[in-house]
Amino acid sequence: xxxxxxxxxxxxxxxxxxxxxxxxxxxxxxxxxxxxxxxxxxxxxxxxxxxxxxxxxxxxxxxxxxxxxxxxxxxxxxxxxxxxxxxxxxxxxxxxxxxxxxxxxxxxxxxxxxxxxxxxxxxxxxxxxxxxxxxxxxxxxxxxxxxxxxxxxxxxxxxxxxxxxxxxxxxxxxxxxxxxxxxxxxxxxxxxxxxxxxxxxxxxxxxxxxxxxxxxxxxxxxxxxxxxxxxxxxxxxxxxxxxxxxxxxxxxxxxxxxxxxxxxxxxxxxxxxxxxxxxxxxxxxxxxxxxxxxxxxxxxxxxxxxxxxxx
Length: 311
Prior knowledge:
The chain is mainly beta. The protein is built from four helices and 17 strands. It has a single domain, classed as Lipoprotein localisation LolA/LolB/LppX (outer membrane lipoprotein receptor (LolB), chain A, Clam). It has a 17-stranded mixed sheet that branches. A hairpin with a 4-residue loop joins strand 8 and strand 9.
């Protein structure tokens, strides 16, 4: 028999015997990372995910956390990243926007930095340089010689507690599901004064759990300001919170990996915990404002002021 006739006969035989799947169809089982082979994907609407972001935010009024921190300076774009291991830190937060982070050096556990913000202004103290950097939260210092000087307490707050969808943000939902991914992406856009539409944030949810796993924050030109990732959600004092948080700030050229060691949520944090007193003799750099060269009293202490640092 002609070879072509043999192939046709074989196909007809498979069909007649109901063996189509074994002859010409190959089935594959998709197992995504962290999922069992029989685990189905969860479904949610845009409104449900918007409410989930708000619920996570509203559940936390304050917290006092001890974390292990791995800071890194550099960026993927410049192909150079330097990590600092085994930094212990204490993070204090109280709504609306009070936050303080104190970092300790490895082994010796002396203070590496102390920074505080009330939501509008910030102060960062670097003991090794006896320097206090202060200014408005919106001020950016791209020329800092040490990129760790770009640390800002509000960057931590944006990552630790993503805000609910804001009145000027317009949400859209993307179902990003393929063989390797199973995510819902809540895309939040804003309209600028000149009428341009730009993405302000995107919030990602794992479809295996519907937990938030990522937040991207963008500038109006579409550049990533912050890429924050969340994993290993735990219940602390009855409130869900991620145990592992990865904060990446490509424009500021630093990243921070946080692992929660101890977390007390909604037990109260007093106002005095957010009062920062610059040490006497420290040099203060005021970002974006003129600073007189003479010694000027600051909060009852003499603090030398450096020259103006423009943003």
